[in-house]
């Protein structure tokens, strides 16, 4: 797929994997994006996941025929992009790997490759003929070795996972069709929240470093090539990495016998009646990444959990631990839930939220055994928002 005379897309869509990193559902698939820069020399930027070697090689050959790949640029070493390095080397024995020192150590650690590696430093350039690739280190976006590659002549940024998203690339690969960014925004937010969300400060540092570039095209490792929505995708990453959120509620709950669920539904209705956006998540039915997405989207998190083993119901605890891991900042918090003989869940949730820096709007609301409107005043809780 030609993005320009010199920049070609040779990535693949994965519609068969059920869980990305064996933990995140990908109901709309995911892409592993690789790119060729075709000049006097040919550079391949990143590879793909292990199962897609034949497809990647076929895509490369469809673009350059029997020409060799001279360089393999490694922006990121997570195996969804690095797994095919040895295969590329076998197909193109003269191919030199171009990467930074941290990634070079990982290449040896993962794949035992030590020869034919050119180590580059911050700002160094690789001439390919008429165009060059320049390398900028963006550590912890989201691994320590991450870097981006900039082709100034094409105003194209090969950004690694940054600006990536779940959901397979559209047929046209780019965001040429109107509405593409909106169609990907939720999955991009879920990708960010799940995978990059812990690293807000490094993302901010990377955005500052790249701020002076006049970017015409963002070639991420996942999702569409951004050409028409560059301001939107950068603004979304900036907002997410500052933990800035819209006014609204992520209301997530777990329920064993339906009492905390009834309270959650009553609360969601009261919140919506006040004109406040509210997305509700049953953590016993869906992966917690969908709620994590909305933790990043909205400024208030409300968690409902019954007391279980004198603690927090495990599916709710998993989300709360995920939120704490990601050091979400500047958000507000409420908890509620049922108990049978001793109330513990809301107190523990409030303690976790307070330790994580949430503003606790009120101590957790709890009720004994069966739900009723008399025991659980949803309107009173919603009035705190
Ligand atoms: Fe898509 Fe961090 O690898």
* First-to-last CA distance: 49 Å
By DSSP, the count of extended strands is 23
What structural class do helix, strand and pairing data support? Answer: alpha/beta
- Rg on CA atoms, Å: 23 Å
Pick out its properties.
385 residues; alpha/beta; 6-stranded mixed beta sheet; 6-stranded parallel beta sheet; 23 strands; elongated; binds MU-OXO-diiron
Q: What can you see in these coordinates?
A:
With 385 residues, the protein is of the alpha/beta class. 33% of the residues lie in helices and 24% in strands. The chain has helices at residues 53-64, 79-82, 85-91, 101-111, 180-196, 200-210, 230-241, 259-273, 288-297, 314-325, 345-355, 378-382; strands spanning 7-9, 12-14, 19-20, 24-25, 30-32, 35-38, 42-45, 71-73, 96-99, 117-119, 125-127, 132-137, 147-151, 156-160, 217-220, 246-253, 278-282, 298-304, 307-308, 311-312, 332-339, 359-360, 365-368. The strands form 6 sheets. The chain has a 6-stranded mixed sheet with strand order 1-6-7-8-9-10. Strands 16, 17, 18, 21, 22 and 23 form a 6-stranded parallel sheet that branches. A 5-stranded mixed sheet has the order 11-12-13-14-15. Strand 3 (19-20) and strand 4 (24-25) form a beta hairpin. The model has no long low-confidence stretch (mean pLDDT 97). The structure holds MU-OXO-diiron. MU-OXO-diiron binds next to helix 2. MU-OXO-diiron is lined by residues 76, 78, 80-81, 142, 161, 221-222.
């Amino acid at each position: 797929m030609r993005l320009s005379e010199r920049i070609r897309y040779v990535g693949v869509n994965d519609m068969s994997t059920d869980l990305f990193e064996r933990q995140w559902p990908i109901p709309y698939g995911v892409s592993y994006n690789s790119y060729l820069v075709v000049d006097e020399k040919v550079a391949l930027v990143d590879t793909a996941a292990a199962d897609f070697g034949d497809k990647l090689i076929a895509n490369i050959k469809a673009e350059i025929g029997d020409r060799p790949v001279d360089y393999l640029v490694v922006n990121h070493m997570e195996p969804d992009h690095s797994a095919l390095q040895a295969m590329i080397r076998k197909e193109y024995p003269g191919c030199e790997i171009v990467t930074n020192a941290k990634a070079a150590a990982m290449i040896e650690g993962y794949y035992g490759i030590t020869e034919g590696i050119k180590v580059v430093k911050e700002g160094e350039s690789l001439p390919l003929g008429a165009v060059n690739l320049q390398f900028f280190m963006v550590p912890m976006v989201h691994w320590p070795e991450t870097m981006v590659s900039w082709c100034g002549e094409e105003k194209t940024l090969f950004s690694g996972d940054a600006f990536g998203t779940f959901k397979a690339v559209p047929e046209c690969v780019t965001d040429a069709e109107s509405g593409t960014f909106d169609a990907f925004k939720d999955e991009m937010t879920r990708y960010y929240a799940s995978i990059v969300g812990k690293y807000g400060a490094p993302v901010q540092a990377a955005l500052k470093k790249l701020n002076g570039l006049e970017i015409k095209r963002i070639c991420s490792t996942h999702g569409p090539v951004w050409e028409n929505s560059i301001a939107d995708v950068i603004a979304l990453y900036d907002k997410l990495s500052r933990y800035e959120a819209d006014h609204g509620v992520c209301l997530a709950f777990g329920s064993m016998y339906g009492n905390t669920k009834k309270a959650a539904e009553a609360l969601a209705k009261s919140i919506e009646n006040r004109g406040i956006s509210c997305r509700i998540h049953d953590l016993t039915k869906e992966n917690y990444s969908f709620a994590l997405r909305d933790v990043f989207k909205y400024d208030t998190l409300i968690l409902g959990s019954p007391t279980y083993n004198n603690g927090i119901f495990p599916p709710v605890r998993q989300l709360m631990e995920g939120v704490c891991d990601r050091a979400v900042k500047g958000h507000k918090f409420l908890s509620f839930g049922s108990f049978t003989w001793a109330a513990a869940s809301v107190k523990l949730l409030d303690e976790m939220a307070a330790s994580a820096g949430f503003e606790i709007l009120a101590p957790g609301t709890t009720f004994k055994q069966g739900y009723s409107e008399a025991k659980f005043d949803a309107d009173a809780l919603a009035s705190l928002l």
